[in-house]
Design goal:
Helix content is about 35%, strand content about 20%. By secondary structure, the chain is α/β, with parallel strands linked by helices. The protein has three domains: about 170 residues, P-loop containing nucleotide triphosphate hydrolases (Rossmann fold), CATH 3.40.50.300; about 80 residues, Rossmann fold; about 110 residues, Rossmann fold. The strands form three sheets. Strands 2-3-1-4-5-6 form a six-stranded mixed sheet, sandwiched between helices. The protein is globular.
């Protein structure tokens, strides 16, 4: 991924939900002004969630998510509905699309309750007004506290009004997203430690490194990038002390030994735990490590599906680190990408990646699921700082 492309994880996720043939795919085409989704009069054309990146100004980069109809039928249809329900955890703004010639169904009302229970801002979109014979005002009066926009995706009527309503509905935090902008100021030196090993992608930086560099530049600070072996040389040649050292968690031990005690230290993964999740909850998860018993199971979950090397952090380094730390006979399960265990109750601990490939809602949803089941969850970087006995030091930049 190039430095100037916007990753899906930081785009506003706009999910389109509703019954089959309500016109969700047509609306995506109308909003994007492109024929990017397959449209058909046959109900159930969209089977799996489809992600479509677009730009909506002044919001900027967004992703439209087309979902299967909530009135799908049969065992396969239920699987499609379940996939659409999974999308709720990733949704920043929900569009409930209703065929205005039919009206609102119990399924639609149930979806609105789901949006409310998950605190998802939502808009009711009354589509197909070009074919409307009844009074749409009656539909509007049946719902309160829900923005409503009447459109015709077919004739491109009302699309600009829908875009304006989306702009008005966007959560304010999207305009203030920053990984470390509140920690640094213009002119600060920020040293980034980026190991180059066989897990590092050839010829490029990984997404967390790219995003931290961009955040430093946006803050007017100065990013100094080096490998761990050159840290001493960098520090001795700087005209003033760095404000912060940010390292890959996998070299915490070495970087901590080389870093002066008066220079704050943290990691890319911990920065993402703070920005994308609930850092307090992830730190609390460390308490479970010392309570692990023989026979306990741990789920190691990642938001992406990268190619794994033989010394992969998730499947090799972290399991070995936990075994060495606890001296217990522990078994591990692994989940990656959009999959997350449907039976978390069997785990004594969930260890999650930094979630750089997931949006904030998706990560918070996973944390909330663990909290409701009383399953501790910890982040990669937090765990590795804890295992190296430097957790307090790595949290100090955040006053925790």
């Amino acid at each position: 991924m190039s430095l100037n492309s916007t990753p899906q994880s930081v785009r506003v996720h706009i999910g389109l939900f509703g019954k089959r043939n309500a016109g969700k795919s047509s609306i995506i085409n109308a909003i994007s002004n492109q024929e990017i989704s397959i449209v058909s009069d046959i109900a159930g054309t969209t089977t799996d969630p489809v992600f479509r990146p677009i730009e909506i100004l002044p919001i900027g980069p967004c992703v439209l998510i087309d979902t299967a109809g909530f009135d799908d039928v049969g065992s396969l249809g239920q699987l499609r509905i379940n996939k659409s329900l999974d999308i709720l955890s990733k949704t920043d703004i929900a569009l409930l699309v209703v065929d205005s010639t039919i009206g609102i169904s119990k399924d639609d009302l149930s979806l609105i309750e789901s949006f409310k229970s998950k605190n998802i801002p939502h808009i009711l979109v009354l589509n197909k007004i070009d074919a409307l014979n009844n009074n749409s005002q009656q539909i509007k009066n049946n719902l309160v506290n829900c923005p409503i926009v009447s459109i015709s995706a077919k004739d491109r009527v009302g699309i600009e009004s829908l875009k304006k309503e989306i702009i008005n509905t966007i959560p304010k935090e999207f305009n203030n997203f920053s990984l470390l902008g509140d920690l640094i100021k213009p002119g600060d030196f920020i040293v980034l430690i980026i190991p180059i090993d066989k897990a590092a992608p050839k010829g490029r930086l990984i997404l967390p490194q790219q995003q931290v560099i961009r955040d430093i530049l946006d803050s007017g600070a100065i990013a100094i990038i080096t490998k761990e072996d050159s840290l001493n040389e960098i520090l001795s040649n700087l005209s003033s002390k760095p404000k912060l050292i940010i390292t890959d968690s996998q070299v915490f031990k070495k970087v901590n030994e080389l870093s002066p005690p008066d220079i704050p230290l943290t990691s890319f993964s911990i920065l993402f735990a703070r920005a994308k999740g609930d850092l307090d909850e992830l730190v609390k998860g460390c308490e479970a490590i010392d309570k692990l018993k023989n026979g306990d199971k741990i789920l190691i979950a990642e938001g992406c599906t990268h190619h794994r090397q033989d010394d992969d952090i998730g499947t090799f380094k972290i399991p070995n680190m936990i075994k060495n730390k606890t001296n217990k006979n522990i078994t591990f399960d692994f989940a990656s990408g959009i999959s997350f265990s449907n039976d978390l109750s069997k785990y004594a601990l969930v260890v999650h990646c930094g979630a750089c490939m997931m949006n904030k809602n998706a990560m918070l949803s996973r944390i909330q699921t663990c909290r409701e089941l009383d399953i501790p969850i910890v982040n990669y970087g937090v765990l590795m700082a804890y295992a190296n006995n430097i957790l307090d030091k790595t949290l100090k930049p955040f006053n925790l």
